[in-house]
Every structure is written in structure tokens, then in C-alpha cells.
Amino acid sequence: MTTMRVASDLAAVMVPIGYVGAAIAAVCAIVAAVAVIRGSGGLAGGAVGVWIVGALLSVTASFAQEWTPLILSGAALVGMLTIGGVVRAIMTAAGAGRPARETDEALPAAVPASKHPAVVSKPARVATASIAVVP
């Protein structure tokens, strides 16, 4: 087989993998934007972590000089994080953040102190040497 034939056969496999990776990266970018809007840092970090995997998959299409999946995955993350940050700022400015917890609903009642005085004893003598010392 010639080099061009091998390159053509590999490109036939790598380009679809690149587009699937770009789709995964776009979905993760959307999840990251929603997480930023909600203020969930852990979810945003996880979504960006999986986005990295999708972006690496989209690089495989560059084997056939097809750069569109890589550009789309990068643009999706940048765009969605920008949109998420702007919407979060608008929501914070409007005061539509997370509802505050009600402190009186979930607190348990205090347990009264015992009427008997606490018995205080001397601490036991503990040997701290790792090797027994014989006198």
C-alpha cells in the first residue's frame, strides 16, 4: 500500500472520531455554562475536565487536515463560559441567586447539661519509647 492510501484510510476513521469528540466537547461546554450560572464550581470543573477529553478527540480529525472539529470545540467552551459568566453576573446583580437557608427549621434543640459534676481523673501513665528499656 502506498502512503497516500494509508493516509486516506486513516483519515476515513479519524475524521468521524474528531466530530464525535467535538460534539462531546460542545455538550460539556453547555453543562459548564449551566454550572457557572448556578454557581456550582465542582460541576463546572468536572464538565471542563470532560471537555478536555472531547477536545483531544477532536484533534484526531486534524490528521486529515480537518480543523473544524477542534475550532468548534474550543469556540464552544469559550462561548459558553462567557455566556455563563454574563448570565451569572446579571442574576447576582438582580438578586436572583440561591435562596438563603432558613436557620430555625433544621437546628436541633440544645441538650441540657448534666446536674452531676464531671469526674476528673488523672491521665494514665503511658510509655512512649518504641523499644522497652529495662533498668
Concise account of the structure shown:
With 135 residues, this protein is mainly α. The protein is 64% helix and 0% strand. The longest helix has 36 residues, at 3-38.
What does this structure look like?
With 135 residues, the chain is mainly alpha-helical. The chain is 64% helix and 0% strand. The protein has helices at residues 3-38, 41-59, 68-94, 103-106. The longest helix has 36 residues, at 3-38. It is flat. The N and C termini lie far apart (86 Å).
What best-fitting shape do the alpha-carbon axes yield?
flat
User: Helix and strand string, N-terminal first?
Assistant: HHHH
**Termini separation:** 86 Å
Query: In percent, how helical is the residue content?
Result: 55-70%
Quickly give the structural class: mainly alpha
The tally of beta strands, per DSSP, is: 0
Query: DSSP strand (E) fraction?
Result: under 5%
How would a crystallographer describe the biggest sheet?
Answer: none
**CA-based gyration radius:** 30 Å
pLDDT averaged residue by residue = 84
What are the low-pLDDT stretches, counting only 5+ consecutive residues below 50? none
What's the assembly state of these chains?
Answer: single chain
Q: How many helices in DSSP terms?
A: 4
